[in-house]
Specification:
- There is one protein chain.
- The protein is mainly beta.
- The chain has one domain.
- 13% of the residues lie in helices and 42% in strands.
- It contains one helix and seven strands, in the order E-E-E-E-E-E-H-E.
- Strands 6-5-4-1-7 form a five-stranded antiparallel beta sheet, with helices on one face. It has a two-stranded antiparallel sheet with strand order 2-3.
- Strand 4 and strand 5 form a beta hairpin.
- It is globular and about 45 Å long.
Length: 90
């Protein structure tokens, strides 16, 4: 199984992720998640996940991708991560 990690170079406008919450009146509020410090691509039987982490190693969010190339393209789109930035996680 593949597992790669890269530091976030910069955050593009496309990298805004939100978490929503419904209050007791049914109103939905959302807040923007903080920018990640690093990301990982993890292979699973159903595809590849691009995981976003804070400096403390807490997971902020994830997205599913059908291929490694798709996950890397998303990382470029959101965080300008270059191919040479990826390092294997042991």
């Amino acid at each position: 199984m593949i597992q790669l990690r890269a530091r976030v170079r910069s955050v593009t406008d496309a990298a805004k992720h939100y978490v929503g919450q419904v209050d007791e009146h049914g109103a939905i509020t959302k807040r923007e998640l903080p920018a990640p410090a690093y990301v990982e691509i993890v292979q699973r039987p159903e595809g590849f996940y691009l995981l976003r982490f804070n400096d403390a190693g807490g997971i902020l969010s994830d997205t599913w991708h059908p291929s490694l190339d798709d996950a890397k393209e998303q990382a470029v789109f959101e965080f300008t991560i270059a191919d040479e930035d990826w390092m294997p996680v042991s």
